[in-house]
From TrEMBL:
InterPro entries listed in its UniProt record: DUF6759
The name this protein goes by in its record: DUF6759 domain-containing protein
One Pfam family this sequence matches: DUF6759
Location of the DUF6759 domain: 174-267
Length: 271
C-alpha cells in the first residue's frame, strides 16, 4: 500500500510540475502587456469570462500604440493586422490551413511579379567558393527589387557547397521563366489527385544553403536558398529525406509530401 501511495504521489508531482511549466495567466487581468494579453486570448478556453474584459482592452491598447508610434515603427503593421483580426474573431490565432493560404497568396504575388519583370527578382552574383556574394534586395509586396551593388553574405556557406550553390543559382532567363510558370501552375492547382505539388523553403539563417530532397529510387531534388530569403520547387508527391547544412549545422528530417509544404530553417543572429 505504501509503495502504491508513493507511486501515485510521484505521478501527481510530475503532473503538477508539467503544469507549472505552462503559461501562468493567474494575474492576466492586471497585465498591461499587449503581447501577454494577446497570447492569453489565443490560449484561453472560448468560454473563459475574462475574454469579454481583455479583448476590448487589448484592442484599445493596440489603437493607442498605433496612434503614438514613431514614424517607421515596424510593429505598427503587426498591430494593425491584429486589430483587423480581433474585429472579426475571438483572437489572433489562425489555423494551419489559414496560414498555408496566406503563404500561398504571397508566393503567387511573388512569382507573378517575377514573370512581369521578365527576370529573377533576386539578382545573384556568383563568386569564388570562399566568398559567396548576394546582391542586396529590397522587399516589396511579396517580392524583391534588384540592387546593382553586390555585398558579401553575413556568413558564407561551407566551401564544399559554394561552387554547387553558385551553379544552382545561375539560371538563364528561359530556365527561370519555365520554373516560375511551373510553380505558379502548382500554386493555382487545387486538384487533390495531382501528382506534383510545391515545396517552399524559407531560410532564416545568415548563411546560404542547399536543401536536398531524396525520394524513392533516383528521385532527388536540390534547392538553393539564399540567406534571409526563400525559394520554391515543384516535386513529385511522396516520402522524402530533407537534408541541409545550415551555417555548419547538419539538418535532416523525413517528410511525407502530399500537399503544398513550407519549411523554415535556421534563425538569424540579427536582433
Amino acid at each position: 500500500m505504501k509503495k502504491l501511495f508513493l507511486f501515485f504521489s510521484a505521478i501527481l508531482f510530475i503532473n503538477l510540475s508539467a503544469q507549472s511549466k505552462g503559461k501562468d495567466y493567474s494575474e492576466i487581468l492586471k497585465s498591461k502587456s499587449i503581447y501577454e494579453i494577446n497570447a492569453f486570448l489565443r490560449d484561453a478556453h472560448p468560454d473563459d469570462p475574462k475574454r469579454s474584459i481583455l479583448k476590448p482592452r487589448v484592442m484599445e491598447m493596440m489603437k493607442e500604440y498605433i496612434r503614438t508610434a514613431q514614424p517607421g515603427d515596424q510593429k505598427v503593421k503587426q498591430m494593425q493586422d491584429w486589430l483587423a483580426m480581433l474585429k472579426r474573431r475571438p483572437s489572433t490565432k489562425i489555423s494551419f490551413d489559414e496560414m498555408n493560404a496566406i503563404i500561398k497568396q504571397k508566393q503567387i504575388a511573388k512569382y507573378q511579379k517575377e514573370l512581369q519583370m521578365g527576370q529573377a527578382a533576386v539578382v545573384y552574383t556568383p563568386s569564388s567558393p570562399k566568398n559567396v556574394y548576394i546582391a542586396s534586395t529590397t522587399t516589396t509586396t511579396g517580392s524583391s527589387s534588384p540592387n546593382t551593388s553586390a555585398k558579401p553574405s553575413v556568413a558564407a556557406i561551407p566551401d564544399t557547397e559554394a561552387t554547387e550553390f553558385n551553379m544552382l543559382m545561375g539560371e538563364n532567363p528561359d530556365e527561370h521563366k519555365n520554373k516560375t510558370v511551373k510553380i505558379l501552375n502548382s500554386l493555382f492547382d487545387n486538384d487533390p489527385n495531382a501528382k506534383e505539388c510545391i515545396v517552399m523553403i524559407e531560410n532564416k539563417s545568415d548563411c546560404n544553403i542547399i536543401v536536398r530532397m531524396e525520394g524513392v529510387g533516383t528521385t532527388k531534388y536540390r534547392l538553393p536558398v539564399p540567406s534571409h530569403g526563400d525559394n520554391s520547387i515543384v516535386v513529385q508527391k511522396g516520402d522524402y529525406l530533407f537534408t541541409s547544412i545550415v551555417c555548419g549545422a547538419q539538418y535532416a528530417s523525413q517528410k511525407t509530401i502530399q500537399k503544398p509544404l513550407m519549411v523554415a530553417l535556421g534563425s538569424s543572429s540579427k536582433k
